Each structure stands twice: as structure tokens, then as C-alpha cells.
Amino acid sequence: MQTTVAALPPRHYLNDGFGIRSWLFTRDHKRIALLYLATITLFFFIGGAMAVLIRLELATPAGDLVTDETYNKLFTMHGVMMVFFFLIPSIPATLGNFLVPLMIGAKDLAFPKLNLLSWYIFVVGGLFTLYALISGGVDTGWTFYTPFSTISSTSKVVPTALGVFITGFSSILTGLNFIVTIHRMRAPGMTWFRMPLFLWSIYATSLIMVLGTPVIAITILLVAAERLFHFGFFDPAVGGDPVLFQHLFWFYSHPAVYIMVLPSMGVVSEVVAAFCRKPVFGYRIVAFASVAIAVLGFLVWAHHMFVAGISVYAAMIFSVLSMLVAIPSAVKVFNWTATMYRGSISWQTPMLYAMGFIGLFTIGGLTGVFLATLAVNVHVTDTYFIVAHFHYIMVGGALMGYLGGLHYWWPKISGRLYPEFLAKLSAGIIFLGFNLTFFPQFVAGYLGMPRRYHAYPPDFQVLNVLSSAGASILGVGYLIPMAYLMWSLRYGRAAGSNPFGAVGLEWMTTSPPPTENFATTPVVAWDAYDYKGEVEGRVA
Amino acid sequence: MLPDAVEHHHPALAHQFDSLAQQREAAALGMWVFLVTEVLFFGGLFATYAVYRWWYPDAFAAASHELDILLGGTNTAVLITSSLTMALAVHSAQLGRRRLLLLFLIATMALGCVFLGIKGVEYYHKFVEHHVPGPGFEFEAAYARQAQIFFSLYFIMTGLHAVHMIIGIGIMLAMFWMSWRGRITADYYNPIEVSGLYWHFVDIVWIFLFPLLYLIGRHA
């Protein structure tokens, strides 16, 4: 043990001040990243507990474990927690916070106090939602559809909605901070086209955060005003239109899917390059694909509303636009694959997650094209096909990328290595458990099993038992990394500044980095993924 | 251009920046990005307004006639004047004229308060006339339902605008404090400049709200 402790740098951001105050009042982007990491992990396990109960209920066709009303609250809270309090902040607020300044060679984000404020806002929003959960829950589904949410529901709609509203500001401030930082804080020589692709992804994500989040904020405020003060915005009784709510809601909530998955794509680009020891194939195309996904993402929202009574012409246009998103997405998948071609691939844990992402995202993306097709969409609307599709994107895609990134940069964050064998094992368990959980749902949904019911016809039981069994495997797969990452914080071997032999400014400083990130501001004279540069001694 | 020693070792220079110029650019860009989010925030309301105005033009015109155009017009003039004093405050800060800066900040805050006061009077009138949406709402029978949507929009749009005004006055108080303590100089006036951007934005929102809410069907 003595030798490993000695191998960490004597001075780094983790030992620069101790005690609770040094964390709660920190302005260091790296510490704020860890505050976020702890908070979203908590929300992840709360949301996961709801999922466990949902899958337990669905193990038998009869609705026997929980009542129908409790079940409604379970899937609502599962969605609210996972979407707003885990997936949306996941990579941007943790890895993004940690890495954006490091990757561009800056001392910190442009607005460190704002960064800390955004964490506090996030916590306050989370507390509102936890209060709603404890004091009775909410049963509208995470989508808060009117008029049920404004008139009929008797559950805690307003506290939950306010929690989401408040959290939105944390998202806006984080996005704003990243945009300004990437524009104004890059080290000398770090041009836009020398930036790692992770930063392009984070930049595109930030654009969505900044442009989309205010719209859901105002939408939620209108729902709250309608519920609290009987204002009429969406109430048919005074001539209001519930479908207008859906337009406003999905104007944010569809792009929000890209808030979740774009950062994971950024992680995959970094990981694939590092573990194939090659530059990402078609760097500029992949960079522009991120921006294209962000832009196109704003033009497709009504594909959530094909059966809500929108005009058939609108539906046709949104159908075509939705399919266009497949183009930049496929560009990325093909380019990662091309990067691997004739690369010297090493199958370490982050690479396993990246491979998992590429495969599962492809399935999720292709079923997305099915759903953009009007006739198929009408057939499978509100069935488990939809549930399976978006879990392939959000869990198979976004979460796989998050875990891959967490492993890849863990030695940089903690200064220590995680146990490789256990990590590979749990990556395998997660991949198997994930597919066993969600693939049967495609079949069940295609056969007509609707979502959001706590009971179902016995014909679907085999598929549901498979799914519940998979969920238990998946749960184990999430607990193992939780355990060994915590263990490695104290007992892991010291990593050294660059354990994977990767290139990028973040690997040129110590692990963990000093509070000011770099002893002297780096001057960049090479492109991203300059793996040929290793021989010229540019890699630490 | 400042001498190097001032530019890189100014007391107002935050640790993460290399120079005052970089800090100034970052602050301005940050505020512009924030204003973009504000445009989209109000954009959701304007979209809602557009849909219902298109559907119920007669009800909207009838409900709009209930608004007090004199008070609304006065408030428009008050706000435009406050934008002038704000611009003069920024100009004084650039020139390093502290007393003038303090004076214009006070004028801006005072005009902001006048605006809010007049707005409060208008709200009171609507309350007395039973034009607040909800169970107590009363309106001529033909438009009784749809006029509620107009007044719901009226209250939420002007209400959120008023919240922005209150925040703006709070920011001006903070600016006044900073200027009073001598922390605003000709070298370092970003806080005033950036706050000014916010103040002008809130004014511009009103410039859209006034015709959309008060002037429907008045051209005939």
C-alpha cells in the first residue's frame, strides 16, 4: 500500500483542502463534477429501485404486487428520476464538467461560481421531486400530459413539475458555461478542428440545453398555473388545446434524447480512437454530425404525436424529417467502425462499453426509423415496442457510453486504477442483462402488449418473465462497478498520468490533476488523436 | 489597449482567465447566450398566444379592449426611457465617471419601480373587474370562455415580464453597490455592460407584449 500512495502526485485537486466546506464551497470544476457524480448516482439508484418494482409486478400477468394506482406512480417516478435527474445531467455534468477545461487546456470553466450554483439548483430541484415522491407520488407519466395533469390527477403534480422546472435551470447554466468556455477559453493552438470529438458532442449538447430547456420550463409553468390558479391554457372547457401542450412538451423532450445520447457518442469517439490507436476516421464529418443531430433534433418532435390528431400532412413531414436524423447517426456508427478497421484494438473495459454502445445504439436507432414510419408507428404506438426502442437508446446507448466514459477517465479522476477483470466481467453482465431485459419487450410490443398497465394477458408472460430475469442480471451488473469503483478510491493501484497511453491534453497532466489543471498553459501544435505523434515524444 | 501589467494582474481579473479582454468577452458572450434562452422561454408563450389568437380573433379583440391603453402606453414610455438611462449608465461607466454612473443607475431603478407600480394598478383593476381567470371570471357571454385564455396569457406574460423586471432591479441594486464601492472602473465595467444587456432585453420583451396584448383591433 505504501508504494501506491507514494505514486500519486503530492499535490492534486483532491488533497487541496479537506472537510465538507472545501467541497460545498468549491469552484473547482473537477470537484463540482464529483458532487454531480455522487448526486446523480443517488438518483440513478432511486430510479432503479422503481424499475425493480415495475419488473417484479410484471413477472406475473395478474396485477398482484402493487395496485394500479401505485403502479402508475412507479413508472412515472422511474421516468422522471431517470430522465431529468440522471440521464440529462449524466455525462455533461460529470465527465463534461471534469473534462471540458482539461481537454482545451484551460484552468477552469468560464464561470466557476455559476457552475457551483448549477449544482445547488440541481439539488433543490431534486429535493422538490423527492418530496413529491415521499408525500404521495405522481401518476401522470413523466410526460405530464394535459388535461389529466391539469384537471384530473389528484397526485403531487405541482411539486414534481416544479422540481423539473428548477432542475432545468441547472441544465441551462451548465450548457451556457460549456458554450462560453469552448468559445473563449481554448489554449493557444487549440483550434476548433483540433478539439477532441467529445468536445464537439458536448458543444452540440449544450446548444440543445440552451435552446430547448427554456421551452419545457415555460410549458411546465403553464401546467402549474393551470392547476394552481385555474388559468386556461390547455383546458378544452375554455377552448384550450391539450395537443398544444404536447407540441410544447416534445419541442424540448425530443431534443432531450440527444442531450442524453450525443455526449455518449463523444465518449465512444474518444474511446475507440484510444483503444484502436488511430485517429477517428473522418474527424470533420463526425464533428459536423454532432451539430447536425442537434439541429435536426429540433425538427422532429411531432413524431411523438402521430396518433394525437395532428394533420396527416404534418405527420408526413415530421415522418420524413425524423428519418433524416438517421443519416448523421449512421455516419457516426460507420466512422467508428472504419476507425477500428486495421486498428490495433485492445479489449479493455472502456472499449467493451464502446462496442456495446455501437451495437445497441444501432438497434435503437434502426427501430427509431421503424417508428418514424407512419403506418408502423400507428400499429405500435403506446406498446412495449416503444419502451424497448427508447431503452435501447437511453440505456443501451446513453448509459453504456456513460459507464464507458466513467471507466476510461476514472484513473484521471481518482488517480487510481479499477480492477480490470471485475470491470470486464460487469461490462459483460450489463450487456447480457440489458439485452435479456429489453429485447423481449420488442416482441411483446409488436404482438400488442400496451405500456403503462400493471396487468396483462397471460399470453405475454414468458416474454415478461425473460424481461424481469434480465432486469435482475442488469441490476447486479450496475452494483458491481459501484462497489469496485468505490473500493478503488482507496485501494486501487496508482494510475500514473496516462495509463491507457492515450493522447489528449487531459492525459498530459497528473492523475489526479492539480487544482489549476496544468503547471503551465499548454500550447497545442497537433491534431486530435495524434497517435502517430507518440513516437515523436508528444505523449507523456 | 492596456499595459501588460494592468491587463494580466488587474484585481478584478478572475483566476481562470488570462486577461481582462478574455474575461470581458466571456462575460458578454455568456449574457448573450442567456438572452437566447430567454427568447425561447418567452417564445413558448408567444407560440401559445399565436395559436389562440389565430383561433379566437374576435374574443381576443374583445378582451384586449378591456385593457387600459393609457396605463399600458405610459408604461411603454417609462420603459423606453429606462433603457436610455441604462445606456447612459454604461456610457458613464466606460468613461469612468462614477457619480454620473450612480445617478443613471438610480434613475433606471426608479423608472423600473414606476413601471411595476403602474402594472400593479392595472392588475388591481382587473381583479376588481373579475377579469382574473378562474371560477370568479366574468365576461360578456359571447366570449366568456375564450376570453379566459386571453387573460390567462395576459397575466402569465406580463407577470413573467414583471418578475424579470424585479430581478433586473435587484441586479441594478447590486451594480449600484459595486459602483459605490469603486469596483467599477474604466478598465473594468463588464458587470454594468452585461446587466445593461439584460435590462434592454426585458424592455424589448415589453415592446412585443404591448401591441400583442393592448392594441388588438384598435386600428379600425
Question: What features would you describe in this structure?
Answer:
The complex is a heterodimer of chains A (540) and B (220). Chain A has 540 residues and is mainly α. Chain A has one domain: Cytochrome c oxidase-like, subunit I domain (Cytochrome C Oxidase, Chain A), CATH 1.20.210. Chain A is 67% helix and 0% strand. Chain A has 17 helices and no strands. Residues 1-6 of chain A have low confidence and may be disordered. Chain B has one domain (15-214): Cytochrome c oxidase, subunit III, four-helix bundle (Four Helix Bundle (Hemerythrin (Met), subunit A)), CATH 1.20.120. Chain B is built from seven helices and no strands. By secondary structure, chain B is mainly α. The mean pLDDT of chain B is 94. Chain B is elongated and about 70 Å long. In chain B, helix 2 packs parallel to helix 7 (190-214), helix 3 packs across helix 6 (146-180) and helix 4 packs antiparallel against helix 7. At the A-B interface, helix 7, helix 8 and helix 9 of A face helix 2 and helix 6 of B.
Write the layout of secondary structure elements.
The complex is a heterodimer of chains A (540) and B (220).
Chain A: H1 2-7, H2 20-24, H3 29-57, H4 68-104, H5 112-134, H6 148-152, H7 157-184, H8 197-229, H9 242-276, H10 283-296, H11 312-324, H12 326-340, H13 349-372, H14 374-380, H15 384-414, H16 420-446, H17 461-491
Helix pairs in contact in A: 3-4, 3-5, 3-17, 4-7, 4-8, 4-9, 4-15, 5-7, 7-8, 8-9, 8-10, 9-12, 9-13, 9-15, 10-12, 12-13, 13-15, 13-16, 15-16, 16-17
Chain B: H1 4-9, H2 20-55, H3 57-64, H4 69-95, H5 98-128, H6 146-180, H7 190-214
Helix pairs in contact in B: 2-6, 2-7, 3-6, 4-5, 4-7, 5-6, 6-7
Features:
heterodimer, A: 540 residues, mainly alpha, Cytochrome C Oxidase, Chain A, 67% helix, disordered N terminus, B: 220 residues, Four Helix Bundle (Hemerythrin (Met), subunit A)
